[in-house]
Amino acid sequence: MAEDDLVIRVRGLKNSFGEQVVHEGLDLDVRRGEILGVVGGSGTGKSVLMRSIIGLQVPDEGEITVFGEPTIDLEENQATEIRKRWGVLFQGGALFSTLTVAENVEVPIKEFYPELDATLLDEIASYKVVMTGLPPDAGPKYPAELSGGMRKRAGLARALALDPELLFLDEPTAGLDPIGAAAFDELTLSLQRTMGLTVFLITHDLDSLYAICDRVAVLADKKVIAVGTIDELIALDHPWIEEYFKGPRGRAAVATQEAGTGKAGAD
Ligand SMILES: Nc1ncnc2c1ncn2[C@@H]1O[C@H](COP(=O)(O)OP(=O)(O)O)[C@@H](O)[C@H]1O
Ligand SMILES: [Mg+2]
């Protein structure tokens, strides 16, 4: 794989909080145009990894490049240039509750393009709202007036506000019912295809892994212990991977996929 096909490259990452070492010697590559699933037990450092990649958490050691540019210790203007090129849906996906959906979507646009006039901002926000499958009248609503699934879509609309090349999603389907989660997966896949996105998807949801991920990275023992297709991972002899994919939830996900509601292999 040519280096310029790597959208994210992490080498020798170390993160710690006081005495607690979260990552040590962590390496990871994310390829252009793929949906990479990131899994691992609770507290293994999935969110911290994402925060390190986007420059919100300064690591103790290691190298991180995104689009070939280092993201650690960037100058302010370099940071702005690179942050325009990615969108982030944080865990919990918190929208600003005092802003409407459309105003939420406008937040990153105003931050990076303060010169845009209100009419254009409105147009861009309406377009993003519809693009994420929300009804057009969702724009003027407040987050509290929306269902959980609609709030996730609004968060996604905000993450896509700047037409990013790279999308970070931290547990986007957590808290949704299976139908809502499958619909969100479908949306992620279709946006990834139409916009040519690279997606870094942290998830607990085995259905999502089967349905939309090209490869899956497994976090355990403070590092990425394996990356590959689900079949490749299952062929490895690792107790956590074995338990995760072959345990009851893993079997249920396979059954869902085989019943034709999953989307794996649709390409
Ligand atoms: N800002 C912080 N300060 C102290 N400890 C933190 C901080 N952020 C995360 N941690 C700790 O780092 C570990 C990994 O957290 P996190 O990345 O959120 O896990 P997860 O894999 O569930 O997303 C946890 O033990 C968490 O308590
Ligand atoms: Mg997390």
What does this structure look like?
This protein is an alpha/beta fold and 267 residues long. 39% of the residues lie in helices and 24% in strands. The chain is built from 10 helices and 10 strands. It has helices at residues 46-53, 76-83, 101-112, 118-131, 148-159, 178-195, 206-212, 230-235, 239-246, 248-258; strands at residues 6-17, 20-31, 35-40, 61-66, 69-70, 86-89, 166-170, 198-202, 215-220, 223-228. The protein has a 6-stranded mixed beta sheet. Strands 2-1-4-5 form a 4-stranded antiparallel beta sheet, with helices on one face. Helix 6 (178-195) links the parallel strand 7 (166-170) and strand 8. Helix 4 crosses helix 5 (148-159) and helix 6 (178-195) runs parallel beside helix 7 (206-212). The longest helix has 18 residues, at 178-195. It is globular. It binds adenosine-5'-diphosphate (ADP) and magnesium ion. Residues 46-47, 91, 170 line the site of magnesium ion. Adenosine-5'-diphosphate (ADP) is lined by residues 17, 22, 40, 42-48.
